[in-house]
Specification:
The protein has 2 helices and 8 strands; from the N terminus they run ααββββββββ. With 199 residues, it is an alpha/beta fold. The protein folds into 2 domains: 2-30 and 49-82; 102-198, Cupredoxins -  blue copper proteins (Immunoglobulin-like). It comes from Nitrosopumilus oxyclinae.
C-alpha cells in the first residue's frame, strides 16, 4: 500500500511541474516581440527518446509504482485463493417425534390343529413388547377362522379385548392405552396362546 502512495505523490509532482512549464512557456510567447526569421534549411534530427525527454525519470517511477501495485494485487489474489474455507457449524438434526406405532402379529397357516403350541408358534410373534398407545394388528393367514380374546384358556375371557371370529385373510386391531401384561388366546382353538407386554 505504501508503494501505491509513493507512486501517487511522484505522479502528482510530475503533473504540477508540467503545468508550471506550460504556464511559463505561454507567458513567454505572449510577451515576446514578433519578428520574422530568415528561412534556414537544416537537416532534421531524430526525435529524442522518452528517457531523454522532460519528466522521463518521473514517468519511469510512476510506471514502476504501477508495476508494484499490479504485483501487490496479484499477491493479494494469491493469498485469498490460499485461504481455508471456514467450516460451517453443523446444526443437530432434530429427530421426528415418535408417536404411536402399529405392530403386526400373524395367525399362521395350520394353527387350527394342535402342534403349534409346542414351539410357541400359534401367533407370530407369540409374545410382543410395545409402548402404551401402540396398536397390535393380528392378521389371519390361515384358512380357518380364529379369535384373539383377552384372557387365558384356564380362566376364560378377561373382557379387555375380543375380536370375535377373524375369518381367513381378515385382521383385527386393538390399541393398548395402559401399561401392563395382557395374555390372550383363541376361543375356537384353546391351545393357541400369546401375550402383549405394554410399558
Amino acid at each position: 500500500m505504501a508503494g501505491i502512495d509513493k507512486a501517487a505523490i511522484v505522479f502528482s509532482i510530475a503533473i504540477a511541474l508540467v503545468g508550471v512549464g506550460i504556464a511559463v512557456a505561454g507567458d513567454a510567447a505572449y510577451n515576446a516581440p514578433t519578428y520574422t526569421a530568415p528561412a534556414v534549411t537544416k537537416e532534421v534530427s531524430e526525435p529524442k527518446t522518452q528517457t531523454e525527454s522532460f519528466g522521463a525519470d518521473i514517468a519511469q517511477k510512476v510506471k514502476t509504482g504501477d508495476d508494484m501495485m499490479e504485483k501487490t494485487v496479484k499477491l493479494e489474489d494469491k493469498v485469498k485463493m490460499e485461504e481455508k474455507p471456514i467450516a460451517k457449524e453443523e446444526k443437530p438434526v432434530a429427530k421426528a417425534p415418535t408417536g404411536p406405532k402399529t405392530h403386526s402379529v400373524d395367525i399362521p397357516s395350520g394353527t387350527s390343529v394342535p402342534g403349534c403350541e409346542t414351539s410357541n408358534a400359534c401367533y407370530t410373534p407369540a409374545d410382543i413388547k410395545i409402548k402404551a398407545g401402540d396398536t397390535v394388528k393380528w392378521i389371519n393367514v390361515d384358512t380357518a377362522a380364529h379369535t384373539v380374546t383377552g384372557g387365558s384358556p384356564a380362566n376364560g375371557p378377561s373382557g379387555v379385548f375380543d375380536s370375535s371370529l377373524v375369518m381367513a385373510n381378515a385382521e383385527y386391531a386393538f390399541t393398548f392405552d395402559k401399561a401392563g401384561s395382557y395374555k390372550y388366546f383363541c376361543m375356537v382353538h384353546p391351545w393357541m396362546v400369546g401375550s402383549v407386554s405394554v410399558s
